[in-house]
């Protein structure tokens, strides 16, 4: 029975994700200050995925260019490992898994380790970087293969005791990342679906 529940969960998840994928692949659909959230719930399993503009979470949307920006990226990655920093469930559920995917997180890390002065020295010697491709990654060039407006992708999964879907509050997200003004939320719960727009003034998604 549990296997059937999981199968249903991911079928519904795939349906919702199709719409989000189309939005992500359309550069015109990207907007600073606007995040996306998908909520899937069946019986006692809750899955929340979010796409958050990197510029709103980090203050920049390019590969880190100095040690301070690398540290900022690492701190954000650590913070997002705790869902309650941005998402709160009412009533609470038992966290099962966390998946945090940040752009640039591994890009150029090897180069940074070899160069104690970080990316800034590499950037200032741009002509050398373009002339010699054998000295590691060229972060500026590599950044061009990333999306023009990269997003941070989160996936959180809980097991809930109650048979009804808990209310979901994003007050923590709006409080900590003030440049995010709205979240487009869509949900599938126990065979029903819907969508709504959350904001700083209406941060609670109730079912």
UniProtKB/TrEMBL annotation:
Annotated InterPro entries: ZrgA-like
Annotated region described as Disordered, given as residue ranges: 114-134
A Pfam family (short name) is ZrgA
Bias type Basic and acidic residues, positions: 119-134
This chain's protein is named DUF2796 domain-containing protein
Source organism of this protein record:
Simiduia curdlanivorans
Organism taxonomic ancestry? Bacteria, Pseudomonadati, Pseudomonadota, Gammaproteobacteria, Cellvibrionales
